[in-house]
Amino acid sequence: MQILDTNKENKIWPLFRLGFRVFFLGGALFSALAMLLWILMLSGVDALPGVQNPIWWHAHEMLFGFALAIVAGFVVTAMQNWTGVPGIKSWPLAIVAGLWLLPRLLMPLRGELNPLVITLDLLWLPIVAGMLALPVLKTKQWRNLFFVPLFMFFTLLNALSYYAAISGNWLLSERVFIAMALALCALITVMGGRVVPFFTARATNTEKVAPISWLEKLSLVSVWLSVFAWLALPRTPVTNALLALLLVVAAVAHVYRLSRWNYKLTGTVPLLWVLYIGYLFIPLGLLTLAAALLRMGISVSLASHWLTAGALGAVVLGMIARVSLGHSGRKLEVTRAMVVAFVLIILAAVLRSVLPMIAPSMTMQAYHSSAALWIAAYGIFCWVYWPILTQPRADGHPG
Q1: According to the model, what pLDDT value does residue 239 have?
Q2: Where are the transmembrane segments (predicted)?
């Protein structure tokens, strides 16, 4: 049976043998290209001829284009391990990846108001949700059903973002985008609790840190409540104060949670310290969002980039670097080039988040330099991991 499976696997182009391959590589490539287009727009070049609102495009495509591609690749791959049911591959995976890619390619030319773009972009996430539901229903592992309604929630937020674009309601757009950034970071905290202590224990030959029940509940409940409160609560001084308090509680809980994960042992392991530094941007982002709500001299947009450029940028790069090695049958060791990429993405996050706060006159320089560093970091990933993700596993196993 194994020989038969291997022969069948060999007929599939390696890029479509598991979800992490096409979505990690595609997401990373797209993020670098999107950042390049963003730099050109900031420089006065009409690089998005069909787009009505370039700021909307930038926020939407980095969240719903780049970040969700990585999430989809990670979850459809991990679901195979969690349930024991083979993951999607071959032509079904290629179709889903194509449905993700087409809106990314069409939007700069046809615009965010184009019905075809909107339809395609709202189609691929529910299909992924359905593909995730099948193995859960087959094995009755209801714990992993969490990802199905989560992907449907992402679809709802995506639809709201398009509604805001069509109606020209930027305040709604901003609310949806920040709710999405919070939701993605909340997902990082869920997955982080599953894998970061395990990764740390395995890499440092130490015992895995046992979770504290009340701390896990407080950390996760507070950050998910922040997502829904940000999306649903009206903006008044009272609700802003309550939401700010909730964000502070979530931030403190996650700092404490992170401090328990043996971070002192990670200094010589790049695949670990990039995750820890990226995770640290989550509570920092929650605190800056709280400060923005309380009108403490920080804009909501600036505060949100602690979560996007910071947490998403660094954690995603660290996770796709590690997962790609593990699922391609290679040693969990990164090259010097990838260590440079980790440093560059952290510098990109710091420049984008901190420089406009301490030197507002250098805000445009922060935008350009941060985007350039992002392009370099994810460009290095694509260069190093292209042969890894487009060739068969090093150990000859399927996947």
Answers
A1: 96
A2: 20-42, 62-79, 91-109, 115-137, 144-164, 176-193, 214-233, 239-259, 271-294, 306-325, 337-359, 371-389
Amino acid at 142: W
Number of independent structural domains in the chain: 2
Q: Are 5 and 12 in contact (CB under 8 A)?
A: no
Residues 6 or more apart whose Cβ sits within 8 Å of residue 90: 12, 16, 17
Rounded Cα gap, residues 57 and 51, in angstroms: 7
Q: Which of 302-306, 338-342, 395-399 has the lowest mean pLDDT?
A: 395-399
285, 397: one domain: yes
**pLDDT value, residue 1:** 32
39: DSSP letter: H
Q: Can you spell out the DSSP letters for 298-327? A: --HHHHHHIIIIIIIHHHHHHHHHHHHHHT
Domain that holds residue 28: 10-168
What is the tens place of the pLDDT at every residue in 313-325? 999 999 999 999 9
Read off the tokens for 350: 């710091």
For residue 148, give every residue at least 6 positions away whose Cβ sits within 8 Å of its Cβ, in sequence order, or none. Answer: 129, 130, 132, 133, 136
Give φ, ψ of 76 to 5 degrees.
-65, -25
Straight-line distance from the first to the last Cα atom of the chain, in angstroms, rounded to the nearest whole number: 16
Q: Which of these, 94, 107, 31, lies nearest to 66 by C-alpha position?
A: 31
Q: How confident is the model at residue 5 (pLDDT cuts 50, 70, 90)?
A: low
- Establish if 156 belongs to a structural domain: yes
Residue 173 domain flag: no
Q: How does DSSP assign 42-97, residue by residue? A: HTT----TT-S-HHHHHHHIIIIIIIHHHHHHHHHHHHHHHH-SPPP-HHHHHHHH
Type of residue found at 283: P
The answer to whether 158 and 121 have CB atoms below 8 angstroms apart is: yes
Residue 101, CA distances (Å) to 6, 64, 120, 175, 197 in order: 29, 11, 9, 25, 34
